[in-house]
Amino acid sequence: MLEKESLVLMSRVRFARNLEAVPFPHMLDRERARDIVSKVEDAFYVSSAIKSDYTTHRMWDLGRTDILVGFEKHLVSAKLINNSDISAYILENREMVSLMVNEEDHIRLQCMQNGFGLRDIFKKADMLDDLLSERLTFAFDKNLGYITACPTNLGTAMRASVMVHLPGFTLADKVSHVAQALAQMGMTIRGIYGEGSQAEGNIYQISNEVTLGLSEEDILTNLESTILSILDEEQVNQMKLLGQYTSEIEDKVYRSLGILMNARVMASKEALYHLSMVRLGIELELLKDIELNIIDNLIISTQPGMMQKAYGIALTEKERDVNRAKIIRSIF
Amino acid sequence: MLEKESLVLMSRVRFARNLEAVPFPHMLDRERARDIVSKVEDAFYVSSAIKSDYTTHRMWDLGRTDILVGFEKHLVSAKLINNSDISAYILENREMVSLMVNEEDHIRLQCMQNGFGLRDIFKKADMLDDLLSERLTFAFDKNLGYITACPTNLGTAMRASVMVHLPGFTLADKVSHVAQALAQMGMTIRGIYGEGSQAEGNIYQISNEVTLGLSEEDILTNLESTILSILDEEQVNQMKLLGQYTSEIEDKVYRSLGILMNARVMASKEALYHLSMVRLGIELELLKDIELNIIDNLIISTQPGMMQKAYGIALTEKERDVNRAKIIRSIF
C-alpha cells in the first residue's frame, strides 16, 4: 500500500479580499466593475518577473470552451463564469495561481499544488496577498476580520481545501459518516467540482467551512490533522475491502484497466469511474507500473471542456467520446 | 471480413435407431434396458481399431461432473441424463462420435465436426450405421422409414444441425424473422444447448425439423443451402452494423477483449457474451492475431461443468468464476 498522502490529488488555498469603500461586485455597474479589474492589475503586475509569469484573461473576451476548460482545471469558479460580463482572472503560466476578479468578492486569490501541501501554498498565497496589499487597501474590521460579500467568509476569509480519492469510504458506503463528523468540526466534504457537484470517480474536496474566530494557522492545523486521520481511515477501509473481497476488488481494478486500454467510445463519467478504480489499484499496489500523476492528469484532461479545447467545439458528444477513448488508450 | 463459413462453430448429424421387436427405452425395465447396452456394444466393437478408438461410459457409473461435462460438449443429451439408470454412451477418443444408448430411442448415433462439414460427418454416420446394422436389425417400415419413439423423427430419423454465431442478426434484432422463415421450410433455430435453451453468446443451432418424406440427401442439400444463405445475410447484417455504428461495434469488441484479458472474476454467461464479441471482432477482421478455434474452445471449456471437471466439485460458484477468469487470461 502506498503512503497515505498519495490519496491526495491536489491542495488549494484561497483568500477572499475586497477593496475598502467599494461596493461588492454584484452592486457595481459594468464600468465600475471593469475598473476594479484594472486596479487589481495595476497593483499586481509590479515586477518584470510577475509580468512574464502571469496573464490576465478577461472573461468577456473568452469563448465558451476556454471558460469551461478553466472551470475543469479549477482555475475559475461557477460564480466567476456567472459574472462573465465584468469578471476576469490573472493566471500564472504554470496554472498553479489564479486571481479571480469580481467573483463574489473583488478578489479571490487561489494557489494550488498537486498532492498534499497546504503549508507551501498558504505561504505562496500569503506572499501574494502582501504584495497586493501594498497598493490596495482591503476592507478589514478588527473584530470581523476581512469583510466579504458573504458573511460565511468573514474572519480569515480563507478556504483551504484538499482533493482526495476515497474509494474505500465510497465502496463501504461511509462517506455520509465523514460528512457528519466534518460538519461538527467546522469542515465540509463536497464532490469534485465544489458545492452541489457529485463525487464522481470517488473524488472529494474537503475544506474548512468556518473562517471566523480562528487564525489561518489554526485552520490549517485542524484541517491537516483531520485529513490525515481521514486518509488513515481510508487506508483501513481499503485494506478491509481488499481482505474481504480480494478477487472482487482485483476484478474491478483490472477490468477498469482493460476497458481504459481497449474502449473505443467513452463518456467522461465512465472515464472518471475507471480512472478511479485504476487509481485504487495503484494505491493498493496491485498495479505497479502506472504512475499516479498519469491518472490524475487524465482525470482532468478527459473532462468535456478539455476535450472540446483539444478537438474543437464542432465535435458532437459522440465524437468527443471517441476521442476521449483514443486519448486514454494512447496514454496506457 | 472472413469467409462466411467461419461463422460456423460446429456441424452435427445424428441418426435415431431402434431394435426391431424391442419396446422403446421408456417401456423397458432396468434389466432389459441394460441388456440393450450390451447388445449395442457387441454389435459395435467388432474390430481392434474400434476397440482402441472408442470407450463405453455407463451413465449409472458416472459422477455428476462427468455427466455435465458430456452435456456441455454435446456428447450426451438431457434425455440421456434423465435415463441415467439405464443409459450409456460409446464415445470416440477424439470425442467427435458418440453412440447414445437408451436415450429416447435405443440408439442415437451422433457425429460432429468443428466448422461447416455436414457431408463428411453424414458419411461417417452412415458408415457406422451400416456397421451396426450388420449385427442388429433396426425397426423399419417401408412407408414410415425408421421407427422412432417420437413420431416427429419417423422417416430418415436424421437430424443434421449446425452451430452458428449470429451476432449480426442478434444485434439487429432479426432472429425471430429467421426463425419464422426456417419454420416454413421445415427447419428450426434453437439456443446453444438445444430445445428450450437460450441463445447465449449469440450462438444458435439450426437444424432440420422434418424427417419424413425427404431423403437424407434432400435434407442435407436443403439445410446446407439455407444455412449458406443465412450466413450471407449474417455478413450483410454485420457489415451494416459496422458501417452504421463503427465505433460502437469496435467499442464492444475491444472492451470485451480488454475484459477477458483482465477480469479476475467471471460467470459463464458473461464469458460467453465477451467471447462472442471477440469472435465478432475476428469475423470482421478488426482483431487479426486471435484464432477462431481459441475462442470456440473457450466457449466450451469455460462452461460450468468443464470448470468443475478441471477444478473439482468442491469449488464454490465464486471460486469457479475466479478460475474461469484465470483460464481465460492465460489463453489471451
Automatic annotation (TrEMBL), chains A, B:
<dbReference type="Pfam" id="PF00217">
    <property type="entry name" value="ATP-gua_Ptrans"/>
</dbReference>
<dbReference type="InterPro" id="IPR022415">
    <property type="entry name" value="ATP-guanido_PTrfase_AS"/>
</dbReference>
<dbReference type="InterPro" id="IPR014746">
    <property type="entry name" value="Gln_synth/guanido_kin_cat_dom"/>
</dbReference>
<feature type="binding site">
    <location>
        <begin position="190"/>
        <end position="195"/>
    </location>
    <ligand>
        <name>ATP</name>
    </ligand>
</feature>
<keyword id="KW-0808">Transferase</keyword>
<dbReference type="InterPro" id="IPR000749">
    <property type="entry name" value="ATP-guanido_PTrfase"/>
</dbReference>
<keyword id="KW-0547">Nucleotide-binding</keyword>
<feature type="binding site">
    <location>
        <begin position="159"/>
        <end position="163"/>
    </location>
    <ligand>
        <name>ATP</name>
    </ligand>
</feature>
<keyword id="KW-0418">Kinase</keyword>
<feature type="domain" description="Phosphagen kinase C-terminal">
    <location>
        <begin position="7"/>
        <end position="237"/>
    </location>
</feature>
<dbReference type="InterPro" id="IPR022414">
    <property type="entry name" value="ATP-guanido_PTrfase_cat"/>
</dbReference>
<dbReference type="GO" id="GO:1990424">
    <property type="term" value="F:protein arginine kinase activity"/>
</dbReference>
<feature type="binding site">
    <location>
        <position position="108"/>
    </location>
    <ligand>
        <name>ATP</name>
    </ligand>
</feature>
<feature type="binding site">
    <location>
        <position position="74"/>
    </location>
    <ligand>
        <name>ATP</name>
    </ligand>
</feature>
<keyword id="KW-0067">ATP-binding</keyword>
<protein>
    <submittedName>
        <fullName>Protein arginine kinase</fullName>
        <ecNumber>2.7.14.1</ecNumber>
    </submittedName>
</protein>
<dbReference type="InterPro" id="IPR023660">
    <property type="entry name" value="Arg_Kinase"/>
</dbReference>
<feature type="binding site">
    <location>
        <begin position="10"/>
        <end position="14"/>
    </location>
    <ligand>
        <name>ATP</name>
    </ligand>
</feature>
<comment type="similarity">
    <text>Belongs to the ATP:guanido phosphotransferase family.</text>
</comment>
